[in-house]
Specification:
The chain is α+β, with helices and mostly antiparallel strands. The chain has one domain. The chain has 5 helices and 9 strands. A 9-stranded antiparallel β-sheet has the order 2-3-4-5-1-6-9-8-7. A hairpin with a 2-residue loop joins strand 4 and strand 5. Helix 2 packs antiparallel against helix 4.
């Protein structure tokens, strides 16, 4: 059985696909609106606009704006920075947006956390050899996102460690940016989903 599970956020980001060219992104406006101060590094030309701030990275490529965060950043600050950046992309006819997160999942116990979801013995039988470890990818619909993906991979060097990646995709429509920010506002929601997926009743702490 699984005796304990520790879930730690490694990184996260918000993405917007739009027609905004990199030179159009206004870093000065972002810094003033989100009270960021000056960046540690900065570059802006026709091919890329990028700036690094403490715990924050903003990258604008042709057709794509991404705002990334490290796990030590305060939730409300992450929401403020992402919201201010998305506001700049909205006038450039966005087609889609999304949020992405990567987690480290540490398992204490002898049970494979995917054992209740995968028939590994059947795979081993068809391969004609043993299967040491297995991963899982799920594509599903869960409001308010239009499509979500969960990807769980075993760390081949550490038997108790798993890497869990999530993506929530939003077709663009009025208010899509606010739906994307909702996920940032509740950092406990996704770890609860991970526990529910990997354990029988989600009660393992």
């Amino acid at each position: 059985m699984i005796d304990a599970m520790e879930i730690s956020l490694l990184n996260s980001n918000v993405v917007c696909l739009s027609a905004m060219p990199p030179p159009a992104f206004d870093f000065a406006a972002l810094e003033e609106r989100a009270e960021l101060g000056r960046p540690r590094s900065f570059a802006q030309n026709d091919a890329i606009a990028a700036a690094q701030y403490p715990s924050i990275e903003v990258v604008a490529l042709p057709g794509r704006l991404q705002v990334g965060f490290t796990p030590d950043l305060d939730v409300e600050r992450a929401v403020a920075v992402a919201g201010a950046a998305l506001e700049q992309a909205v006038p450039f006819r966005p087609s889609a947006g999304g949020t992405n997160s990567e987690y480290e999942v540490l398992i204490v116990g002898e049970e494979d956390p995917l054992g209740g979801l995968l028939d590994v013995s059947a795979a081993a039988s068809r391969l004609g050899t043993g299967v040491d470890r297995a991963g899982l990818k799920l594509v599903f619909t869960r409001a308010p996102a239009d499509r979500s993906t969960f990807d769980c991979e075993p760390d081949l060097d550490h038997a108790s460690r798993w890497v869990f990646r999530s993506n929530h995709h939003y077709d663009w429509r009025p208010g899509a940016e606010e739906l994307m920010l909702q996920g940032l506002r509740d950092p406990r929601a996704e770890p609860q989903l991970i526990r529910a997926l990997l354990t029988a009743d989600g009660s393992v702490e």
